[in-house]
Design brief:
Blueprint: H1 3-8, H2 11-55, H3 60-77, E1 84-90, E2 99-109, E3 121-131, H4 136-151, H5 164-167, H6 175-181
Antiparallel strand pairs: 1-2, 2-3
Length: about 180
């Protein structure tokens, strides 16, 4: 064996020992980036779901709690653990045809990747906007009028034996029934 070949013996093992920690650190960095991207997508999705829940809430006061509950449920179902979760529902335009915006901020921990000099936590923030149905007030009136028609059955044409088809022009509680039946 030539003298140069003897000097190279075992050098592959030494190189492998030196390169392996770098490869492991690179793999851990890729995992950390993947975790952040996944968590960011889940926070975006939670903000969208929370905005939708806030837009169908009964009123502006109920929109905030509905958004928070929906964001918590969406993140927990995707196994995203937030050390702090803040959800803000902007309800300044909470009216029929308006919109509601929700901002969700979630602080996720990177403690599982402690071999890398990464920050211990990252705060992810997403904002989503959802429209409020233009016919919301009319739908609420119809659903309330159904309940009121039962309570005030003496004034209802159907309770008096008059079919709604004939009384549709005369009584407001029959208007929704005539449009539903197609008459």
């Amino acid at each position: 064996m030539p003298p140069a070949a003897r000097r190279d013996q075992g050098s592959a093992a030494v190189e492998l020992v030196l390169v392996t920690p770098l490869l492991i650190m690179m793999l851990m960095f890729i995992i950390a980036v993947g975790r952040l991207v996944d968590a960011r997508m889940e926070v975006n999705g939670a903000a969208m779901q929370a905005a939708r829940a806030a837009s169908v809430a009964a009123d502006a006061a109920a929109a905030g709690p509905a958004a928070l509950a929906t964001a918590q449920a969406a993140l927990s179902s995707e196994r995203v653990t937030c050390s702090t979760l803040a959800v803000f529902a902007g309800t300044s335009d909470f009216q029929a045809g308006g919109q509601v915006s929700v901002t969700a901020s979630c602080t996720v921990s990177l403690a599982g990747l402690s071999l890398l000099p990464l920050p211990g936590a990252e705060t992810l923030t997403a904002t989503a906007v959802a429209p409020i149905d233009e016919f919301r007030d009319q739908a609420l009136v119809l659903s309330n009028s159904e309940g009121l028609a039962d309570a005030n059955s003496a004034q209802s044409p159907t309770a008096a034996g008059v079919p709604c088809r004939a009384a549709a022009r005369q009584h407001a509680s029959c208007a929704h029934q005539s449009t539903e039946s197609g008459d």
